[in-house]
Amino acid sequence: MDGLAVAGAVKERVATAVADLRGRGTSPCLATVLVGDDAASATYVRNKHKACEATGILTRDHRLPASTTQGELDAVIDTLNSEAAVHGILVQLPLPQQVDEFAATSRILPPKDVDGLTPYSAGMLAVRRPVLAPCTPSGIIEMLDHYGIDVPGRRVSIINRSNLIGKPLSQMLLARDATVTMCHSRTRDIARHTRDADIVVSAVGDRSRFELRPDMVAEGAVVIDAAIQRHEGKLAGDADYGPMSERASHLTPVPGGVGPMTVAMLLKNTVTAASMIANVGT
Which of 52, 132, 146, 260 is the most buried (most CB within 10 A)? Predict the structure, then answer.
């Protein structure tokens, strides 16, 4: 499953929508907030800005020191909330220990919540009326659709229960009539659940604790590897692509799978937010 190709198709649609919005007087703008000097986070933010520029989305880059207090971060978010020219706000996670991630992301106005992390966004997703849904789960659904993988009636095992991936993805799949099992660090015998699944989504990202092996999935299963980490000196997911590709009918590589889709769906959410805020259909 080629995430780069699918993401490219999404970006083409985004670029068309951006041009349409600009023609109607609205220039979509994404503001990012990075706290601290984490190298990986800085790379992620830089890549998001490049993707925005490639599709015509304006960007604002806010860099705050690692010593930033909750009050200082709140003030930046409040300012961005009040600026009419800013349509999407993304606070890059993780945040330093002295800052409450939930408080920070919850402070973003729901119409500008392009990461889909506010309680409002989570609630709307839970009642099957999503507006701005989390980017990684949305990207996974987009890939399943692109490759014509039917979801209704399928058994899905998700190895992740975070607010970023596992929980919202389970809601999206349930809305499509899948039967979903969520596995996590306290699940006993994860392999028993994954072998019984038609689709396996793994997003642990720590090979020292977990590896998704070919013998843990059914022959012909769809495997979505949504993890990314440094393993033996290179970027890798929860599974080794070569051995797993001999077992799975469809498999996402790392890198080049879910990662590009996450960025693409962020762009899509930004355009959606701009359209809603400007009350303009795209």
Answer: 132
